[in-house]
Amino acid sequence: MPETPSEETPGEPVVVGGPVPCRVVVCRDCCCGSPKVTGVDHAAQTARLRAAVPVRVSECLDVCDQANVIVVQPSAAGRAAGARPVWLGLVNDPDATEDIVAWVRAGGPGLAPPPDILDLYTFTPPRRPADS
Q1: How far is CA 66 from CA 24, 32, 41, 79, 91, in A?
Q2: Is 128 left (phi over 0), alpha (psi -120 to 50) or beta?
Q3: How far apart are CA 71 and CA 78, in angstroms?
Q4: Angular region, 48: left φ>0, alpha ψ -120 to 50, beta rest
Q5: pTM
Q6: For site-directed labelling of 42, which of 33, 52, 90, 110 has its Cα 20 to 30 A away?
Q7: How large is the angle between the packed helices 94-106 and 42-52, nearest 10 degrees?
Q8: In degrees rounded to 5, what are phi and psi of residue 112?
Q9: How far apart are CA 28 and CA 35, in angstroms?
């Protein structure tokens, strides 16, 4: 039985019982993942991400003007290094999806710098008012 590594090795699959990798949230509701965003194979994009990292499909994340939205959540080690989730919008190009996969495989937020091109996709979501 393989030994559980003490650190995640970039580009290598995570062994059961090993460190928790980055996670990706993919918005798929009213705009993201719908025919409203034309020319994108939404199922292929989700499948490609799932092949590299745990993916959660979410209902509307309330940033429809940024469709397709992908949120890269840091791993436990990334959070310990101070990383926060990174919101990426207008991810409508297979090359951008590949850039996200490469970043996540390298360790993701807090552990690896994102490819420079992802700066074009990064945005800060608006704050939601607290429920009264």
Answers
A1: 16, 8, 17, 25, 8
A2: beta
A3: 14
A4: alpha
A5: 0.81
A6: 110
A7: 10
A8: -145, 140
A9: 11
